[in-house]
Amino acid sequence: MTDLLWRDADADAPPFTLDAHPRAWELLRAALDLPAEPSAPAHAGADIVLRAPRLTDAQLRALRDLTSPGAIKTDSRERILRAYGKSFRDRVRLRQGAVPNPPDAVVYPATEDQVARVLAFCGANDCALIPFGGGTNTVGAVEARDARVTLALDLARLNRVLALDEISQTVTAEAGIRGGELERALNARGLTLGYAFEPPATSTLGGGLARRGELARSAHSARIVTPRGILEAREPAQLQCALGSEGALGVITAATLGVCALPKTENARAWLFKNFAEGVAAMRVLTQSGLAPTFAHLADAAATRWWRSVIVEESPRGWAGFVAQIRRQWFGDPRSEFDAGVVLVLGFANAASANAAWAQCAAHGAFDLGCAWAAAWSRARTTMPAWRDAVFERGALMDTMELTTAWADVARVQAALLAAMPAAQVWIEGVRAEPATLDLRITFWARLEAGREIARWEEMRAALIACARENGAALAAHAGIGYENGAGYYVPAALGALKALLDPGNVLNPGKWLVAATASSQAQAIEYQERFWNLPANAWK
User: Fold this and answer.
1) Which residue of 233, 361, 467, 538 has the fewest C-beta atoms within 10 A of its own C-beta?
2) Angle, alpha carbons 363-365-367 (nearest 5°)
3) What is the pLDDT of residues 478-514, one digit of tens each?
């Protein structure tokens, strides 16, 4: 069952191997003192023994009657592949063959009405329902821990583009469409979402909206199936409740999003700064001056060194071709010893914004690495999930988390995080800028101890989160709600009570929210119901 691995998620891509990236692998191997040969092979998926499905024959017949032929899957392969997402803990347990609580069946509805019927079935039969999306979730939001019979809901059959309004620049699509498919359909009409699905081969529209991130910012409306009926969320407050809920309030079946013209030229470039602080300063000025890039990625010195080793392998010019120019431009001496710096990669939807940004970067003294470097980085970043599995086989831990911090605190947070992990490799990258804040992606690497893979990961993750909070940072809001982030995600009491009203049987993705309850929760929920969902207080009585 090779598709248990991230590296095989994109069937069109060649299999990922460390042999294809010798320079990058050697950097990691030397830094962590890792063995040269594999030491932790993956468990064969076909050998994993699952608990038998707990649905009765009568329940299975009822589900099949409610959907369509072939919509209900109970074989081991389907259940294993829907048991976990893609967090480090998920991947380790899959590799070790530990799947103690798989879904009892996987349901592939073909229409929104079938989604509603399946949800009603779950309520009537005391079952839990977990919307799966593309399975790319990294915070434990698709894992079943409920003792009840559990169904995994896969909307792969709801994958159509329903409408394209080129005048209003909006697209309406079903939630099961893959990110790459939607973007290709838009590109054929000269349009784009301006957002990169990661990974495009497996992530879905509904999953991206349920996670809440850049994609959710472009949403104009969404259709959501709840145990209380089908809702059309249009108001900003409605969307704020529904998007990012990880399916705990309802199943997103379709959405309308804003699109923009596909740039006629490549508006992405890479710029080299002398240090991380100068790159951060440039990002802040760009953001606060209203130049909003479609993507921005600032790698610190350690990450730049590694990215450079990957990119150089596919660049005919290589790093050496830039070094003499950089030394001459920055130091006036092509023989200086400089061989470091940090790289900022920026992309824009239109040439005017891009040109203004390039001028800002140049004004900050950055060296222009060009479009080819940016394109090579864009290709290389899609391999990052595969690196995690590949280095695990060689005895190394690799994972990421995202934090958000005020611009004024970036330097302090960076220094504290690096000091907190003296025995590990830690990269810090600026990945998402707002006028007041910067999101930092933390990538951490360490040598593993056999039998303590998950324990070591938990220790490192907890230490990094504690360090971040002590220095004024927090988990990024778009990082998602799930078992991995449970300790940091107490939803407001009003939302918890709204969950109780929309989903009184706690059918939808149970256990993912931690609610800070108050005596006035019910009253707050009714206020949400009346003001934001445009429903009368007695609508569900």
Assistant:
1) 538
2) 115
3) 556 677 765 444 566 667 778 888 899 999 998 877 6
Angle at CA of residue 246, ends 121 and 138, nearest 5°: 125
Residue 215 has pLDDT above 80, yes or no: no
Q: Is 107 helix (H, G, I), strand (E, B) or coil?
A: strand
**Single-letter code of the amino acid located at 76:** S
Q: Closest by alpha carbon to 208, among 181, 168, 235, 230?
A: 181
For residue 154, give the H/E element and its range: none
374 sits in which H/E element: helix 370-381
Domain termination residue (choose one: 261, 281, 310) = 261
Mean pLDDT lowest for which of 213-217, 271-275, 311-315, 474-478?
311-315
Tell me which H or E stretch contains 56.
Answer: none
For 397-446, the DSSP string reads EEEEEEEEEEGGGHHHHHHHHHHH-TTSEEEEEEEEE-SSEEEEEEEEEE
Owner of token pair 């799930």: 482
Q: Which two tokens stand for residue 314?
A: 């596919």
d(CA 524, CA 531): 10
* In-domain check, residue 353: no
Range of the structural domain that residue 174 is part of: 161-261
Structure tokens at 237: 């407050």
Q: Residues 115, 57: one domain?
A: yes
Compute the distance between CA of residue 250 and CA of residue 252 in angstroms, rounded to an integer: 6
pTM: 0.84
Does residue 38 contact residue 18 with C-beta atoms inside 8 Å?
A: no
| Percentage of the chain modeled with pLDDT above 90 | 43
Distance CA 267, CA 283 (A): 16
